[in-house]
Amino acid sequence: MCAAPKQGQKLPAGVDVEKETVLTGQVLDATGNPVAGAFVRLLDGTGEFTAEVVASGTGDFRFFAAPGTWTVRALSPAGNGEITVSPDANGVFDQDITVAK
Asked: Which keywords belong to this entry (predicted)?
């Protein structure tokens, strides 16, 4: 079993989104339903593994990163999927991942 932290929709208290870059979203299946328990990985611009979390019961995930180019990859029994996110400043960047077999 993976020791990645469970995720939720709310940001922790004290997070200053003017000073932090937050990558967030929801893992969805091909019909738009949330995929709970998906392993969501953060890869840097060179494709190197950086972090992993487990999507919440509603498919939510969250990473604290830095401006730059990131790949967010979801792996689950419902299928796999990935997105590229390129935040150029601090703030919350919300983008969902659709998985398919």
From this structure: Isopeptide bond, Ubl conjugation
What H or E segment, with its residue span, contains residue 75?
Answer: strand 70-76
- For residues 50 and 68, the answer to whether their CB atoms sit within 8 Å is no
Q: Dump pLDDT digits (tens) for 28-43.
A: 999 999 999 999 999 9
Helices (H), 1-101: none
pTM of the model: 0.85
User: Can you tell me the distance from the alpha carbon of 71 to that of 2, in angstroms, rounded to the nearest whole number?
Assistant: 20
Residue-range definition of the domain harbouring residue 72: 21-98
**How many domains, in total, are found in the chain?**
1
> What span, in angstroms and rounded, lies between the C-alpha atoms of 4 and 38?
11
Count Cβ atoms within 10 A of the Cβ of residue 3 and give its class: 0-12 exposed, 13-18 middle, 19 or more buried: exposed
Under a CB-based contact definition with an 8 Å cutoff, are residues 75 and 39 in contact? yes
Antiparallel, parallel or unpaired: β 21-28 and 91-94: parallel
Answer for the pair 38, 52: CB distance below 8 angstroms, yes or no: no
